[in-house]
Amino acid sequence: MGIVALLVFIAITVVVNVLLKRNIAEALLLGLVGVALVGGTRAPELLWHGITSAVSSEVTFAGMAFVFMGIIVQSTGLIDRLITILNSLFGRLRGGAGYVSTFASAMMGLIAGSTAGNSATVGSVTIPWMKQTGFSPNRAATLVAGNSGLGVALPPNSTMFIILAMPAAAASSASQVYVALACAGAYAVLYRLAVVWFWTRKDKIPATPKDQIVPFKQAWSQGWRSPSIFMGILIPVLLTIGPLANWLKESTGVGADGVKAISIIVWVPVLITLIALIEGASRIRRNNAQFRVQIVQDLPSFATVGISLFAALAAAAIMEELGVGDQLSNTLGAMDLPKWAMIVIVGVLAVVVATPLSSTATAAAIGAPAVAALTAVGIDPTVAIVVTLLCTSTEGASPPVGAPIYLSAAMADANPTKMFVPLIMYFVLPMILLAWLVGMGLIPVYVPGV
């Protein structure tokens, strides 16, 4: 019944979200109900099991906290100040706006995992700038839509949370996945920088005019506190991984249990939110009314993502109860495939499912069996999770459904259909290849010890 539940979940979500054009939260909630009904007379029991599992998971709180954090970071204008600093450094390069757009997407990926939010936030600033400095509308929109996947290819993100909450990920910790995904995500960022370099030469894009560049000294004086946001990431990581963590375990009263109790996925959004509020305090005081309006405008996205995360986690719990993980794993295992072929099949399956669905819904649907299948062929559990996340990160760049495609096209006044082939060639297929190289161990990622 598990596979049937999975098919029902995907079918309902696709029909409601894609064909009926309803909100993804509504689609996932209806999918949750449909999954429970597959259990027949056990439906009420299964639904209650899913609800209680989702409510009691720290992943639910962490996901909501990251959404709220993203709203605060955007409302205080912190990302704009970071981009201004990057512009002062890279604007003098040919195609400098493209490099800044890529770095900005990476930064947004580190603090908020939404692909649509990534493209909307970064694109609103960098698309007009790219168009002014020689990028065609289609190129600018394609880059922003393709880069939106960094919201999933870099930690932390709700997709990562959902997979971590599944039994199939029990052999890996949040800290291990966080660090390993950061390594793999860094490769994804470097690749995108190479794409910008290639497009800059191919399209003969010039350097940014000097009158559009804020001198670094001025940019730094106005936004020197904005990079402090990354302390919100560094502090929990340093406290749980590496020499400082070892010292706390062995030489203080904190001990191993105390260090283990520090949750990266809980403390990162809390600390970054506090830092953003402190860093942007003067701006909030000067523009209090505007700040409140911005918060009110963004609150619907908070509700949408929160409900989506809850429904996806609950549906995943029900599908696990119905045995979807074991059934899909047994199906894949019965193929008796070598590791390289299994990675290809899992990668293609993840991309196909992520095309009509969000990365969050994809993780809920196939995350557990994908990780289990990859682990069964000898891949480290943490690496298996990273491979799955890299493949699902194609959500925003997968035509014809990806929301970032149409958001970016609208901001750039570009033709979305002319972006489809470049997105597949420059972003979707290369991410599958990157996932394959990581899974095969041909590109190393660091997995901390337990």
TrEMBL record:
TRAP C4-dicarboxylate transport system permease DctM subunit domain mapped to chain residues: 3-439
Bilayer topology annotation: Multi-pass membrane protein
Entry-linked InterPro entries: DctM, TRAP_DctM
Record field: transmembrane: 27-47, 59-79, 99-129, 177-200, 229-248, 260-278, 299-319, 339-358, 370-390, 423-447
Subcellular location: Cell inner membrane
GO CC terms in record: plasma membrane
GO molecular function: transmembrane transporter activity
Top-rank lineage group of the source organism: Bacteria
Alphabetical keyword list: Cell inner membrane, Cell membrane, Membrane, Transmembrane, Transmembrane helix
Coiled-coil regions listed: none
Pfam annotation, one family: DctM
PANTHER family reported for this sequence: SIALIC ACID TRAP TRANSPORTER PERMEASE PROTEIN SIAT-RELATED, TRAP TRANSPORTER LARGE PERMEASE PROTEIN
Name this protein carries in UniProt: TRAP transporter large permease subunit
Species of origin: Corynebacterium glucuronolyticum
